[in-house]
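Here's what a typical entry looks like (Alkyl hydroperoxide reductase):
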Amino acid sequence: MKFDYEVLIVGGGPAGLSAALSLGRMSRTALVCDDSRPRNAPSSHLNNFPTRDGIHPAEWRRLAKKDLEKYKTIEFFDGSVLSVEKSSSGFVAKLSSETFARFRKVILAYGVEDKPLSVPGFKELWGKTIFHCPYCHGFEIRGSRLGLISNSEMTFHMLPMVNDLASDLILFTNGKAEFGEEQKDLLKRNRIELIEEKISGFIYEGEQLKAVSLENGKVKERQAVFFQPTLPFSLKSPIGETLGCEKNQFGFYKVNERGATSVEGVFAGGDNVSPAHSVLLAAASGAMAGVGTVLSLLGEQFAKN
């Protein structure tokens, strides 16, 4: 098979751009496909990234793409990858331009799809005063009256972090709590109010949360809220599943230390392989997937000589 590129990168966020940089540094040819649906689009800043703390997400992506300009082996496609099929020696991808391209390897870097609460105010406040990550947004709202919306095995992983940021904290399980009396007792000892009533909406002015309203008619004043999605996570594309990539109980692709999935020739990096979601960690994971792909390509070439 004649290949158009060595590598297909599905996703042009932090993971995909970092993977492209790893490939470019080793003069590998790659096509980065980006359908312009960045997860952090609603946010006005990203944090916890050395030298870029507080930068606008769109500006970070612009700078990352600018870094790639000198690597002539890296090209971009503004659109979606509709499907990827494995062939005897590589992969064939159908793009949203209705064209087909052939690749030796694939890197899945499309991240996860956030599933908002279908109540008034959530979408309007997402990334403004409703957040997913204390490391990304916690410093700016420290000392506030906070809420955590969570009801899973991950609840007590995030709870200590949010509690430390808050002047007082309410845990909203948005339905009957799925944890036991020992954990409820731990909440009481830490003076964290537990509310199992369903959330009916969010009261806000502009981008500022004022209160959380409940289906029983009660209103709880809050200044900001952290939201943990229902497990398992939903990924932005079904391509990996179609190819047969195994996932874990959280909905993430199973990968080794070099980003290789369970399918030969398919690598993954970013938010779709780990619950630790931030731009810095996604970039690092993407870079490693790029490294793993380079090693695979060059190892195969070396063995043929």
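Helices lie at 14-25, 57-68, 122-125, 134-137, 155-165, 181-189, 239-243, 279-304.

More examples are in the samples folder.
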